[in-house]
Amino acid sequence: MSLAAQFPVLVVVLPLFVAPLLALLANRGNLPWLVAIVTSALTFAMAIALTAQVMQTGVIYYELGNWPVPFGIGLTIGPLSAMMLMIISGASTVALAAGRESMNAEVGEEHQALLYSCWLLAMTGLLGIAVTGDAFNIFVFMEISSLASYVLVANGPKRQALTASFKYLVTGTLGATFYLIGVGYLYMMTGTLNIADMATRLADVSDTLPVMIAGGFVILGVALKAALFPMHAWMPNAYQYAPTPVAIFFAACATKVALFVMLRFQYELFLPNLGPQASFLSSWLIPLCVGGFLVGSAVAMFERDLKRMLGYSSVAQLGYIVLGISLSSSAGVTAAMIHFFNHALIKAALFVAVAGMVLRFGSSNIEQLAGVGKRMPLTTLGFVLAGVSLIGVPLTAGFISKWYLIQAVLELGGLGILLTILILVSSLMAVVYIWKVVEVAYFKEPVDGQSMLGVREAPMPLLVMLWVLVFANIWFGIDPSIPITLAKQEAAGFFGGAR
Amino acid sequence: MTLLGLYNYWIFILLLVVGLYAVLVKGNYVKRMIGLGIFQAAVFLLYITMDKVEGGTGPIMRGVPEPGQLYANPLPQVLILTAIVVGIAVTALGLALAIRIREEYGSIEESDIRRQDQES
Amino acid sequence: MISLLGFMTLTLVAVAAIATVLATNLFVASMWFGIFSLLMASNFFILDAADVALTEAAVGAGVSTVLFMGALALTGEKEAIRAKFSWFPMAVLGVLALALFVATFQQPMLGDPLAPVHQHVAPWYLEQTPLLINIPNVVTAILASFRGYDTLGEVIVIFTAGIGVLSVLSFKPKRRQTISSEALAAKVRGVQHHSILRVVGKLVIPLLMLFALVVQFHGKYTPGGGFSAGALFAAAVMLYGILEGADRSAKAMPEKAMLRLAAVGATLYTGVGLVCLLLGGAFLDYNVLWSDPLIGQYVGILLVEFGVGLTVTTVLILIFNAIANRPTY
Amino acid sequence: MMGMILEWLSWLLLAAGGFFVLVGGVGVMRMPDLYTRIHAASVTETLGTMLILVGLMLHSGLELATFKLLAILVFLLFTGPVSSYALGNTALLGGLKPELGAQDASKEGCEP
């Protein structure tokens, strides 16, 4: 078999093979960082090759151990999985490239070998979820990424990182175990674990109560992992107290993988087979998403800490994605997928800029960042442009995803108009909290106690990464062909009946 | 007869509720880890209840199995072997965090920790 | 008759769970948790799940109780007693329990051979294993070969927990350390002079290690395999650590060596998969490992189970030594 | 004929074992403090278990299972009393004074 045919499994196995070896490396200089970024970059290259292949030939199937699918474990890489692979490995590469110096500043030299090993394991877990076609396998890889994420968060400089990590551990394990119960009920009623196979066998048992409960548990478990509105308490905490490069990586892709699982279960399993009951499940999500993006944006407006503010803004943005998913229509899927892609770009850019500021100013408290505009012009400009994309001003990626979301929502008629207004209200709130940072950065005089001498521009790799992301934001604002073709292909897959 | 047939599921529900109650309500971090352990053990019970076949033995086919022999379903057992190790992995990490929190905060009670966080 | 016994053990399990949650002294609670795990293991055996019973007993009752003991020695024993019984969460859980209870009446009965679980995938395994892999223990066949990718993920989960605990506990507490762990262990050895226990320990520990190796390499024929073997071997080392003092068990099984062996175990598993890849098969396809596919499967499963056993053993010992040797405050 | 006697003997042993386990259980409930409870518990541990195991061995006749039961019997013979000793030793070191001893000593006024 040619090497390219092995990519579907190699994209997960490469970091999985390197991570244990990385844990053995002595903490000399930035050797662990180097190994981590090379592996991450290679995975990113493989992900791009896979996406190109998926765009031409459609879904790729790969059977592990050469066992036929319902009996062995099969990997299915559709357009959505390919996009997720790109987002995860891309976010990891960018975060590693931009975050080397801030990681050295925040985490001591002697802890880095284990830290970067956990980083690769977190990435492996997320990639494993995106690639696999087996319901129980998703649980196993979800556990790998979660365990590694708890360790990454616990390495934060301040002592609150420990309690943030413990709360994240309890919530994450509850979510994963709810998901496991859901899969257990599905297995009890269908007798198989492969998602595609389960979909075919679910039709004749779909009216029984245990299948409804299975859907409820899976959605609840995944919502807990994705920090959906009422259960989001752990996410802002984790982003604030985790080392900043970890926050870049998580903000861009960690919670989105849980939404990826929700989207797959909702559209592949519940919608085609459960009929009326499935729309009950998703309509129960709409009020939660509305609550999510209203409360998320509102709290973000009054937040004093920059990273915590972006955490709450992530809660709001995830609310948009779940709104797209819960519309259970082809336009809804397209909107959700496009926002997967664009939100990763926006949040990665914002957090890279914040990493620069925290590195030079030593704190992420907004008041203390006064006058950052004058001292670090390039970083702050990058932050502002990313903020503009977050708000959804035309010619930016944010606008494209908002545009498709509003188009999808308007299909609902009366309710759609109300939802559109609410989306615009939350975008206005986004303007407020981005402006709050801009005002502090440019128009406020630095706090007198703050010595501005030592402060200079952010390190070169961070700036390069920031501006690569900002240009990507603008580029995908003007020519969003790649995410849109992938989204349309996936939507066709679900509704066109190609699968 | 339904009592014996569905009793396993009822005990699963009871353990689920007991485990969740301990995780959500108890303030002590080690007690919450024990609650998490009970909650995961309940899920193990749900899976293993599925594998029992009336009159079947364990899925070990020594020698030539006589045709009529029924075997228990091996698949849930494989899944639960994996889930048990996940449970112990999470418990170990949770306890390590509880130890570090005790050293940094001086206590592992939710109320004390929140009070110290608000003061600082 | 057997399901009546199952009925009894399950009631005991429920009682043990409630007692665990109600106990306010955490040592008592973790003891109850050990009893709960052991009763759960015996119940698994009644439900014809021998492998799971062995692993649950070794991991649930053995290793996790020792970990809880170690953690409690470093944190507080008493739980802050909040007398009030909060109604709101109980009400929510009550509604959830009611919904689940109503659903149970549409679920297949215990032991019902016509249940969907026994229709589609399970019979294929039971028929094909003698032909394709030809080992008696079907559970090990599925664990290592049919769903080998799951178990690979599993080894990585336990490895992540190992380096996670190391990374979290590598931050030495800032406060001055009054007594080093070696001196503390010597003091404890002086006071508790477990001479009788250490003599019997010397007798039991080798037997336990031998049994662990039997379970590891006999896993194809009798219930057992990497996980339970790893847990049993780690339990033997923990018993040695408890009797002789944790510093001696740390000297016997140093942390650096354990981390290396755990990494070797994990990469051994991935390595076997990659070798299958290079030999032209799919990832984790053991048929290509040997000229005759059956022997290929045999060799593949043997190596993979050894990788699992090695990683689980070394990670559990690593965690025990890290927790037991931490200076107390 | 021989089988009949063995059958009866094993049922007899099993019943006796069951009875002693019951006695141990009641003893643990009634005894006042830890040390006397260890006595009651060890009745179950040694006598009750031994009788049940021997009864099972007779029941299963000469097979591999019998040897395994014998191994369990030997293992329990070693670890049972040792664990009760460890419990008592640690309790004493932990400062738990035996209750009955204290009352007689205080009456006669000598150190317990």
Structure, described:
The complex is a heterotetramer of chains A (499), B (120), C (329) and D (112). Chain A has 499 residues and is an all-alpha fold. Chain A has 19 helices and 2 strands. Helix content of chain A is 77%, strand content 2%. Chain A has a two-stranded antiparallel sheet. In chain A, helix 12 packs antiparallel against helix 17 (414-443). The longest helix of chain A is centred in the C-terminal third of the chain and has 32 residues, at 330-361. Chain B has 120 residues and is mainly alpha-helical. With 112 residues, chain D is an all-alpha fold. Chain D has one domain (7-102). Chain D has 4 helices and no strands. Chain D has helices spanning 2-30, 34-60, 64-93, 99-108. Classes of the chains: A mainly alpha (499), B mainly alpha (120), C mainly alpha (329), D mainly alpha (112). The interface between B and C is large, with 89 and 105 residues.
Supply database-style keywords.
heterotetramer, A: 499 residues, mainly alpha, globular, D: 112 residues, 86% helix, elongated
Highest CATH level, the class of chain B:
Mainly Alpha
- What is the radius of gyration of chain A? 22 Å
DSSP summary: helix tally of chain B: 4
Structural class of chain A: mainly alpha
Q: Helix and strand succession of chain B?
A: HHHH
Structural class of chain B: mainly alpha
Which whole number gives the mean pLDDT of chain A?
87
- The poorly predicted ranges of chain B are none
Q: The CATH topology of chain B, please?
A: Helix Hairpins
Instruction: State the largest interface.
Output: B-C, 89 and 105 residues
The count of DSSP E runs of length 2 or more, i.e. the number of strands of chain A, is: 2
Distance between the termini of chain B: 61 Å
Low-confidence residue ranges of chain A = none
Percent range of helical residues of chain A: over 70%
Q: How much of the polypeptide of chain A forms β-strand, as a percent range? A: under 5%
In a few lines, what is going on in this structure?
Chain A has 499 residues and is an all-alpha fold. Chain A has helices spanning 7-24, 31-57, 79-106, 112-131, 135-154, 160-190, 195-202, 209-225, 234-241, 244-274, 276-301, 306-326, 330-361, 372-375, 377-391, 397-410, 414-443, 460-478, 481-495; strands at 60-63, 74-77. In chain A, strands 1-2 form a two-stranded antiparallel sheet.
